[in-house]
């Protein structure tokens, strides 16, 4: 079986797997990275949203042979030693209900804020429209994105420790 090498959350990894195996299964079953969730397996729910070279993508439909030499970032690699400002905003705004979709929601929000540092409601709705939250926390998601945008524009970096709302 061939080995595929890529950077995962800042570390070079090499995995032996069939080339057409979806990256989501490589992450979860081979590498033990469980932040990206399996929701639909066809790229429509957003539960697995991660970053490929800084852009949001769906590992459930990306074969492992397509990430060779690239940088993959999952929710586990987002904040480094502390919380990313988007993660902090999620906690402060008390976004999560069941929490299942939240890693994908957060990763999509980070990608949005990279290109739109001061997003309008329309920008947020467009960017987040392909990430489904079955609990319906969309109003809190929008509030958290706006709070994170303020944190990022003010130069707030990642925080350490446990955050409280």
UniProtKB/TrEMBL annotation:
<dbReference type="InterPro" id="IPR006058">
    <property type="entry name" value="2Fe2S_fd_BS"/>
</dbReference>
<protein>
    <submittedName>
        <fullName>(2Fe-2S)-binding protein</fullName>
    </submittedName>
</protein>
<feature type="domain" description="2Fe-2S ferredoxin-type">
    <location>
        <begin position="2"/>
        <end position="78"/>
    </location>
</feature>
<keyword id="KW-0560">Oxidoreductase</keyword>
<keyword id="KW-0001">2Fe-2S</keyword>
<keyword id="KW-0411">Iron-sulfur</keyword>
<dbReference type="InterPro" id="IPR001041">
    <property type="entry name" value="2Fe-2S_ferredoxin-type"/>
</dbReference>
<dbReference type="InterPro" id="IPR036010">
    <property type="entry name" value="2Fe-2S_ferredoxin-like_sf"/>
</dbReference>
<keyword id="KW-0408">Iron</keyword>
<dbReference type="InterPro" id="IPR036884">
    <property type="entry name" value="2Fe-2S-bd_dom_sf"/>
</dbReference>
<dbReference type="Pfam" id="PF00111">
    <property type="entry name" value="Fer2"/>
</dbReference>
<dbReference type="InterPro" id="IPR051452">
    <property type="entry name" value="Diverse_Oxidoreductases"/>
</dbReference>
<dbReference type="Pfam" id="PF01799">
    <property type="entry name" value="Fer2_2"/>
</dbReference>
<keyword id="KW-0479">Metal-binding</keyword>
<dbReference type="InterPro" id="IPR002888">
    <property type="entry name" value="2Fe-2S-bd"/>
</dbReference>
<dbReference type="InterPro" id="IPR012675">
    <property type="entry name" value="Beta-grasp_dom_sf"/>
</dbReference>
């Amino acid at each position: 079986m061939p080995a595929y090498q890529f950077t995962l959350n800042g570390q070079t990894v090499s995995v032996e797997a069939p080339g057409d195996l979806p990256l989501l299964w490589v992450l979860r079953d081979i590498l033990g990275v469980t932040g990206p969730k399996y929701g639909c397996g066809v790229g429509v729910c957003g539960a697995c949203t991660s970053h490929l070279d800084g852009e949001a993508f769906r590992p459930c439909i990306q074969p492992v042979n397509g990430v060779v030499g690239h940088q993959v970032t999952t929710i586990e690699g987002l904040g480094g030693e502390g919380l990313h400002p988007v993660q902090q905003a999620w906690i402060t705004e008390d976004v999560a209900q069941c929490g299942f979709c939240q890693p994908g929601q957060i990763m999509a929000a980070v990608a949005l804020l990279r290109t739109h540092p001061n997003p309008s409601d329309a920008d947020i709705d467009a960017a987040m429209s392909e990430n489904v939250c079955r609990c319906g926390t969309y109003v809190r998601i929008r509030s958290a994105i706006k709070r994170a945008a303020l944190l990022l524009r003010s130069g707030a970096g990642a925080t350490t420790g446990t955050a409280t709302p």
